[in-house]
Amino acid sequence: MKYNHIAFNKTGYFSSLICDYLDEKPQLNPFYNRFPKLENFKAQIKQKGASFSLENRNTLVSVLKKQYQNVECSQLTKQHIESLKSEHTFTITTGHQLNLFTGPLYFLYKIVSTINLSKELKAEYPENNFVPIYWMATEDHDFDEINYFSFKGKKFQWSKDEGGAVGELSNEGLDAILEMFSQDLGYTTNAENLKALFKKAYLDHDNLSDATRFLANELFKDYGLVIIDANERPLKRLFISHVETELLNQTAFNAVSEMNVKLSSISEDYKIQVNPREINLFYLAKNLRERIVFEDDVYKVLNTDIIFSKSEIQKELLEHPERFSPNVIMRPLYQEVILPNLCYIGGGGELAYWMQLKDYFDKVEVTFPILLLRNSVLIQTEKQAKKLKKLDVSIEDIFLKRDALINKKVREISNIDIDFSIQKNQLKQQFENLFNLAKKTDKSFLGAIKAQEIKQLKGLENLEKRLLKAQKRKLSDEVGRMTDIQNKLFPNGNLQERNTNFSEFYLEYGEQLIPNLIENLKPLKNEFTILTV
Asked: 26: closest CA among 266, 354, 304?
């Protein structure tokens, strides 16, 4: 297996906010705590260690042991769970939705990044322990975002009509998905392993939460991954004070709104990922997850008849904290309250909305974690790599959008120069001379000269496009071979990791897929990895 790298800002697939963050632009300093460098974890360990209580550690370990009662995990995972009782143990966390059969490839890359950073930190700070955590988003209710996966361009979708938290959804109906998926997998050893994995995960477990825990454990148990479902009453009890503050004071709304204004004022290219609500909580019950709002001096649960007075909702919170579910704004805070966490690893969109939360964390006096962009990977075969080399397509070229790639390569391989930049500049200079002449003689001609300049420049541009189009036809075979490979590496014109399911590569490489990723991905390198297998 060979690997190459390309800077994130050269791929064209990452926002200016994330690229500026990776470049450590000083204007973004107020939006994070510490940059993800090995030496910066020393201060993060000290800060988090001083603020995380023994009570929270014991509660966390108790819940994890309960959740792992019926899970065949590795000895390393058991050791990691037990070690969380110690004040010298910290977590490195990534989170993800309960996508069917893991969803897109980047699910793997998130967890690999988490495992590998934990290893690097243990080597650098051997007196401490570092536990890789996968936070299952069991309380999400957007089923349409997680009910499918893509395999060789085909979408396998699970249809179901249920509400509430997705972690509690019954796995009923997934036998039909397995039957269809099996037909496309074939009958190789790796295919049979994938069928068995899907069956054991979804048909041998009752709900989506248990199925996803089994699946992630099967894939990563050898590396000591600890999987948490935070939708638990004992953990929610640790969060009561923050929920009460949110209900009474709208702390998140005020802090995040101010931060959004600050972020937008730096650059119009910095897009706001999430906007806070006045109350950033849902009310959770069986088949129900609806927003809590404050209207007419009472608390209401939208789309229901549930209403609370101030004293009643405080009583409900104390007696049933498990019924209060944080939204996208408060979930990160919940995570950092119940975990001795040092670093959150996520995609570009996730890190962008975490940056909006820095002031909120400061106001509620919870340590803000280090934010690390997860590893990103493009997997290509040796055959594809050789073809691209023969076609003289570089790593930077293959990341170009389709039309940009075609235009660039046609110009490079054409035996005529289809770049009219020189002619355009000469034409502009000629018209500049005409403008100067008109200013000295009759200024009423300026408008006519400008119109003629626009017309002639447009004519040159149209001629350039027509010649380029003619060359594309002439070189169609070579262009076709390039775009055929690009289409396979970038399904639907998007990054492979955001589309393709891991099963497509497991089918080819089997049990060596994840060890190869573990071996080759470096979480602190801050570069996009191209793996040739």
From this structure: 266
Place of tokens 């493009």: 378
Q: Answer yes or no: is pLDDT of 41 > 60.
A: yes
Closest listed residue to residue 237, CA positions, set 321, 172, 113, 168: 321
Determine the Cα–Cα distance for residues 33 and 95; give it in Å rounded to an integer: 19
pLDDT, mean of residues 244-264: 96
pLDDT in tens, 137-173: 999 988 999 999 999 999 999 998 888 899 999 999 9
Using only the alpha carbons of the chain, give its radius of gyration.
27
Residues in the chain: 533
d(CA 70, CA 193): 22
Residue 112 DSSP label? H
User: Tokens 């590998």 identify what position?
Assistant: 116
CB environment 304-314: b (16+ within 10 A), e (fewer): eebebeeeebb
Q: What pLDDT, in 10s, does the model give residues 286-304?
A: 889 999 999 999 999 999 9
Across-strand partners of 530? 4, 378
Spatial separation of the C-alpha atoms in residues 359 and 263, rounded to whole Å: 12
Q: Which residues pair with 341 in a beta bridge?
A: 91
pLDDT in the model for residue 174? 96
| 3-class DSSP string for 141-157 | CCHHHCCEEEECCEEEE
